[in-house]
Amino acid sequence: AVLVESLLVFTAVLAVHAVVWDRFSWCAVALAVQAFYVQFKWDRLLQLGGAVFQFRGAANSGLLPASMVIPLLGVVMKERCRAAGSVYFERFGIVVASTGMLLALFLSVLAVGITKPVPTNTCIVTGIAGSVIIYTMKHSLTVSEVIEVLEVLLIFVYLSMILLYLLPRCFTPGEALLVLGGVSFVLNQLIKRSLNVIEGRGDPIDFFLLVAVVGVVLLGLFFTVLFIFMDSGTWISSMFFHMMTAVLGLGVIMPWLYRLIQRNPLFWLLQFLFQTQTRLYLLVYWTFLAASACGVVFYQNAKRSSESKKHQASTITRKYFHFIVVATYVPGLIYDRQLLYVAAVLCLAVFIFLEYVRYFRIKPFGQTLRHLLSLFLDERDSGPLILTHIYLLLGMSLPVWLFPRSCAPKGTLPGAGALVPYSGVLAVGVGDTIASVFGSTMGEIKWPGTKKTFEGTMTAIFAQIIAVALILIFDSSVNLNSSYAWILASVSLVSLLEAYTTQIDNLLLPLYLQIMLMA
C-alpha cells in the first residue's frame, strides 16, 4: 500500500514537472526521491517507538505525500502567475516552493539523525537532494527571500516542539509537516505584513484569514500553559477562560486587524456580510444548514441513548456532514466566493474555539460537547483533540483560500484551472463521500493491501465526472477549453490516492487535486 501511494505521488510530481519543466520542478523530483527513502526510516522509527514525539498510530509516516504538497503548490502558483504577468506573486510562489522544500528536508534530516545505525544510502540521497535544492535556492532567491524562508523554518521548529509535546498522537509526521508548516507560514506572513503596512495594499479578507488563524493558535497556546497551573473544569476557571478570550479578542486581535485593514474590523465585517441581497439569502440558507447539522448530532445521540449497544456512528452517518458541507459550499462558489471565503474563516475560528471548550471541559458546554462528539469519533481521532471535522472544513476551504485571485484577472483560471476552487467539493464532498458509502455497502473487490474497494473508487471517479458536468451547467464562469482528459486523469489519480493513503484524506486529497488542476 505504501509503495502504491508513493507511485501515485511520483505520478503527480512528474505530471507537474512535465508541464512546468524548470529548475524548481527538477528540485521537486529530487525532493520526492529523497522523501521516498526517508519515509521508510520514519516508518521504522514509529514501529520501534524511537520517534522523538508520540505520533498517531494505525498509519504510516506519510512523509512523501505531505512533503510534496507545499513545494508543488508553490511551483504551480509560480507558473500560473508568471503566465498572468504578476511578478510579485510569481516571486511569492518561488518563496512558497522553497519554504516547503526546506521544511521537508528538515524532517528528513531529523529522521536520518535519530535512526541507529546511521542509514548510509539514505544519508547520501538526502545529501544530494539537499545540495541540489540549496544550490537552486542560492541562485533563485534574493537575500530578503532567503531570510523569509529561514524565519518560517525557525517558527516551524519551535511550533513543532511545543505542539507535538502538548498534543501526543494527534498527527503523523506528514500531517504535522502540513499543518504546522502551514501555520508557520501564515504566522510569518502576518508578522511581515504587520511590519510593512501600506494603506490600500492587500485585500482585507486575506488579512482576516491571517489574523484569525494566528489568533486561535495563540489563544490555544495561552490557555494550555494557563491550565497547567489550574483546574480547567471549575466555574472560576471557565469564567476566567471566557473573560480572557474576550480580552485577547478585543484587546489584541481586533487592534491587530485594525492596523492591517485601516478600519474598524467589526463594522467592516458587518458591512461585508450584508452588502448585497444575495449575501443575505446565502447567510439565511447557511444558517438553516448549520441547524440541520446540529439536528443530526442531537438525533444520533438520542438514538444512541435508546440503543445502548450502538456506541459509534456508522460511516454513512458520518458522511451526512459531507453532504451538508457540499450543499453549503456549492452555492457560495457559484454566487459569491468572497463571502464563502470569509464565512469559512469565521467557521474555522468557531470550530477551533469549540474544540478548546470541549478539550479544557469549560463550563457550561464542555462536558456536553465531549458527550455529543464522542459518538462520531473514528480511528484517526486517537489523540486528545477531535480534529476530523476541522480537517473536513479545511479540505473544503483551502482551495478557496489558496486560489491565486491576483493571477486570475477575470476571477477564474483558464482550462482545468477554472475548477480549482471546486477541488474540495470534488475530492472530499463528492469523491470521498461516494467512495465510502458505496464501498462500505456494495464493495466486494478490495484493493491489494487496503480496506478500500475497487467499486468504491470507480463510483467516486464516475460521481466526480458527473459533478464536473453539473458545475459546467450551473457555473457560467467555468470554461474548461477541452482539457477533459487532464481533468479525468487528475480525478482518477486523487481517487486512487484516497484508496491507498492512511493520512487524513480530508486534508490531503483536495490539495493534490488543486495542484493537478492548477498545473
UniProtKB/TrEMBL annotation:
E.C. numbers: 2.7.1.108
Localisation per UniProt entry: Endoplasmic reticulum membrane
MF terms (GO), sorted A to Z: dolichol kinase activity
Keyword annotations of the record: Endoplasmic reticulum, Kinase, Membrane, Transferase, Transmembrane, Transmembrane helix
One biological process term in Gene Ontology: dolichyl monophosphate biosynthetic process
Enzyme class: transferase
Any one GO CC term of the record: endoplasmic reticulum membrane
Membrane topology: Multi-pass membrane protein
Transmembrane portions of the chain: 7-37, 57-76, 88-112, 118-137, 149-167, 207-228, 240-258, 278-299, 320-335, 341-361, 382-402, 422-442, 454-474, 486-513
InterPro entries in alphabetical order: Polypren_kinase
Family: Belongs to the polyprenol kinase family.
Protein name, entry field: dolichol kinase
Protein source organism: Oxylabes madagascariensis (white-throated Oxylabes)
Lineage: Eukaryota, Metazoa, Chordata, Craniata, Vertebrata
Gene of this entry: Dolk
